[in-house]
């Protein structure tokens, strides 16, 4: 897998820091990079959930259809009531 120049630069910085510190000094920097990546993933998931929840519920409701004995679901019936 190819790495972006930004990732390569960060890894070089981490490697330089690791060379000048004890062996375990490398671990906190790696954990910091993992934390940054997880924060990005969390923000994307949160935004997707916020913008996608209502459309997903509407889609699933229209896909299932109306209960027996009820009028059929249409976009106009959704907006009118």
UniProtKB/TrEMBL annotation:
Keywords: Membrane, Mitochondrion, Mitochondrion outer membrane, Protein transport, Transmembrane, Transmembrane helix, Transport
Pfam families, per database record: Tom7
Main location group: mitochondrion
GO biological process: positive regulation of protein targeting to mitochondrion; protein import into mitochondrial matrix
Membrane topology: Single-pass membrane protein
Alphabetized InterPro entries for the sequence: Tom7
Localization (cell): Mitochondrion outer membrane
Similarity comment text for this entry: Belongs to the Tom7 family.
UniProt-recorded name of the protein: Mitochondrial import receptor subunit TOM7 homolog
The species this protein was found in: Lucilia cuprina (Green bottle fly)
């Amino acid at each position: 897998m190819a790495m972006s120049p930004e990732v390569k630069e960060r890894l070089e910085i981490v490697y330089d820091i690791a060379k000048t510190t004890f062996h375990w000094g490398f671990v906190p920097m790696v954990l910091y990079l993992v934390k940054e990546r997880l924060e990005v993933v969390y923000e994307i998931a949160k935004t997707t959930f916020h913008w996608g929840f209502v459309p997903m519920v509407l889609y699933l409701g229209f896909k299932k259809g109306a209960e027996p004995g009820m009028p059929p679901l249409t976009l106009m019936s959704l907006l009118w009531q």
